[in-house]
């Protein structure tokens, strides 16, 4: 049984903490623990059977394995905050969706202190939980894969180099987050013109395996409504990755705008995600964009 710390007690962090506590002692830390949401988050920790630390220093003190599951925009800053608190023998698993260059910067921040491990989370965490595929990179990737597999997680070796598995993940995000954005933009316009049924029928005829005639459109647009702000942060890192390669990132820049637009409209209208359940993309489009 190892001492594990999960930093970032949001959706993914909560699931991984809940799965890892079946095998190990788990401590969680989130900056929201010291804010207005602190008591609710401590209650959630108690339900999960994990310890909520009182500070980042406490969370890291006895940790052997540290999972970073924060937003893309906070990923590198977290490493800098952790840097003076890390020590040899620890492994820092950076599970955040950021550019390969950002991962390499983070690895430099851990140099001479903890082992830095590049982790690419290759699918949404909620449906599969512990079975979510994880690609592992870095000098200690093989040892990390062995530990994670013994801890019930679906980890596989990707590379000995930091950045490689994140490049796989982020190139995939061009397509996945772009498809969410395209679906949102396409169907909002179709709904406005009253032709959504015909558009969906045409898409289903061209791509029948995706489920355009079923739940697929609802799922795609729901991901933007729930996670669009976080996805926009991730795609900014994708833009950085593409531009670092000397290539244009025109499509991704558009994806950022579309991923942000729906949650921004929700905020303007005072709508929170929970009130949209069960999610219906047509009703959401009508309420947020089409009704004056």
TrEMBL record:
<keyword id="KW-0560">Oxidoreductase</keyword>
<dbReference type="InterPro" id="IPR036291">
    <property type="entry name" value="NAD(P)-bd_dom_sf"/>
</dbReference>
<dbReference type="GO" id="GO:0050661">
    <property type="term" value="F:NADP binding"/>
</dbReference>
<dbReference type="Pfam" id="PF09130">
    <property type="entry name" value="DUF1932"/>
</dbReference>
<dbReference type="InterPro" id="IPR013328">
    <property type="entry name" value="6PGD_dom2"/>
</dbReference>
<dbReference type="InterPro" id="IPR015814">
    <property type="entry name" value="Pgluconate_DH_NAD-bd_C"/>
</dbReference>
<feature type="domain" description="6-phosphogluconate dehydrogenase NADP-binding">
    <location>
        <begin position="3"/>
        <end position="140"/>
    </location>
</feature>
<dbReference type="InterPro" id="IPR008927">
    <property type="entry name" value="6-PGluconate_DH-like_C_sf"/>
</dbReference>
<protein>
    <submittedName>
        <fullName>NAD(P)-dependent oxidoreductase</fullName>
    </submittedName>
</protein>
<dbReference type="InterPro" id="IPR006115">
    <property type="entry name" value="6PGDH_NADP-bd"/>
</dbReference>
<dbReference type="GO" id="GO:0016616">
    <property type="term" value="F:oxidoreductase activity, acting on the CH-OH group of donors, NAD or NADP as acceptor"/>
</dbReference>
<feature type="domain" description="Phosphogluconate dehydrogenase NAD-binding putative C-terminal">
    <location>
        <begin position="190"/>
        <end position="261"/>
    </location>
</feature>
<dbReference type="Pfam" id="PF03446">
    <property type="entry name" value="NAD_binding_2"/>
</dbReference>
């Amino acid at each position: 049984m190892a001492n594990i710390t999960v930093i970032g007690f949001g959706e993914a962090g909560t699931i991984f903490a809940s799965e890892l506590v079946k095998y190990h002692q788990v401590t969680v830390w989130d900056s929201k623990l010291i804010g207005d949401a602190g008591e609710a988050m401590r209650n959630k920790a108690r339900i999960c059977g994990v310890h909520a630390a009182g500070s980042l220093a406490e969370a890291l003190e006895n940790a052997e394995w540290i999972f970073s599951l924060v937003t893309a925009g906070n990923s590198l800053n977290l490493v800098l905050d952790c840097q003076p608190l890390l020590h040899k023998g620890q492994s820092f698993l950076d599970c955040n969706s950021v550019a390969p260059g950002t991962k390499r910067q983070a690895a430099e921040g851990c140099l001479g202190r903890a082992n830095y491990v590049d982790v690419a989370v290759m699918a949404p965490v909620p449906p599969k939980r512990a079975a979510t595929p994880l690609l592992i990179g870095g000098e200690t990737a093989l040892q990390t894969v062995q530990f994670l597999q013994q801890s019930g997680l679906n980890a596989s070796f990707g590379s000995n180099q930091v950045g490689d598995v994140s490049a796989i993940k982020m190139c995939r995000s061009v397509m996945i987050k772009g498809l969410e954005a395209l679906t949102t933009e396409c169907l909002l316009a179709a709904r406005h013109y009253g032709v959504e049924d015909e558009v969906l029928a045409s898409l289903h005829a061209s791509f029948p395996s995706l489920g355009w005639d079923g739940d697929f459109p609802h799922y795609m647009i729901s991901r933007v409504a729930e996670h669009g702000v976080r996805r926009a942060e991730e795609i900014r890192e994708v833009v950085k990755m593409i531009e670092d390669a000397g290539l244009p990132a025109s499509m991704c820049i558009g994806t950022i705008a579309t991923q942000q637009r729906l949650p921004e409209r929700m905020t303007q209208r005072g709508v929170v995600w929970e009130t949209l359940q069960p999610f219906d993309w047509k009703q959401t489009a009508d309420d947020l964009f089409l009704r004056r």
